[in-house]
Amino acid sequence: MIEDTETIDEFLARHTEDVEEAVRKAAAQEVMPRWQRLAEHEVDQKAGPHDLVTDADRKAELYLTAALPALLPGSVVVGEEAVHANPATYEAIRGGAPVWIVDPVDGTRQFVRGETGFCTLVALAHRGVVRASWTYAPARDQFATAVRGRGAHLDGRRLHAGPPEPGRELRVATSHPDYTTDEQKRALLALRTPGVAPRPCGSAGLEYLAVARGECDAVAFSWEAAWDHAAGLLLVEEAGGTHLTITGEPFRITGGNELPFTAARDAATARRVVALLSGEAA
């Protein structure tokens, strides 16, 4: 069992590339062979027609659930599909063991449609702090990594989000309407104002990557599931961005956040988006 963050730092110094290899293998063995080849019986609904799961999700998560703790003895896995089967497993995020937070196929709807906008997300967290993350978009041949204090990289190149260009509309990806309550829709509607160009998000992981690359200025999301956010939030932070809830506090992967929240390529943009979401903008 890992007892302190120094030991995790030592693990990351030795094994970051091993984790990347495990993520690549999970995608190569379980995800990509099914991309654009899914049979009808390989796709199921969870909460409804907009909440899909495929055999690729299930089998890639099983692969990573075996591979990741083998790299880091004493660690545990919190995966989206395992939590769907047993919600109590989510509590490990709040525990004392290092936890791998896994979304085997983020952007399942895009995956089912045969599009390229999906990815596999893995984050390593300890006592509520995300220490490292891996974002792999296999159909686009993109791999992004972030290690706390060591920067964010895409295919080996350092990412710097930087501030938006002065005078240009803010590009903001928001929670998709299919996944929002009426109250959340009202909050997000505040972004429909001069100087802001909101649009529904696709894969959350790829939207965070777009913020880290400076291709999108911010996201505004209204749900807490850690597997959607943990990897991307660290990616944005290590690229120089930040994240805030509508109370002005950083988003916590352990939950209990006031929603919606934003992650943005710089602090000024984050504050502007939060002011609009909370109804405080002039």
From TrEMBL:
This enzyme catalyses: a myo-inositol phosphate + H2O = myo-inositol + phosphate
Pfam families reported for this sequence: Inositol_P (PF00459)
What cofactors does this protein use? Mg(2+)
List the EC numbers from the record.
3.1.3.25
Q: Which PROSITE patterns match?
A: IMP_1, IMP_2
Name any one GO molecular function.
metal ion binding
Is Glycoprotein one of the keywords UniProt gives this record? no
* Keywords assigned by UniProt, alphabetized: Hydrolase, Magnesium, Metal-binding
Per UniProt, Mg(2+) binds at 80, 103, 106, 228
Organism domain of life: Bacteria
Entry's SUPFAM superfamilies?
Carbohydrate phosphatase
- GO annotations under biological process? inositol metabolic process; phosphatidylinositol phosphate biosynthetic process; signal transduction
EC top class named in words: hydrolase
Q: What InterPro entries does UniProt report for this protein, alphabetically?
A: Inositol_monoP_metal-BS (IPR020583), Inositol_monophosphatase-like (IPR000760), Inositol_monophosphatase_CS (IPR020550)
Record-given protein name: inositol-phosphate phosphatase
Give the organism the record lists: Streptomyces fumanus
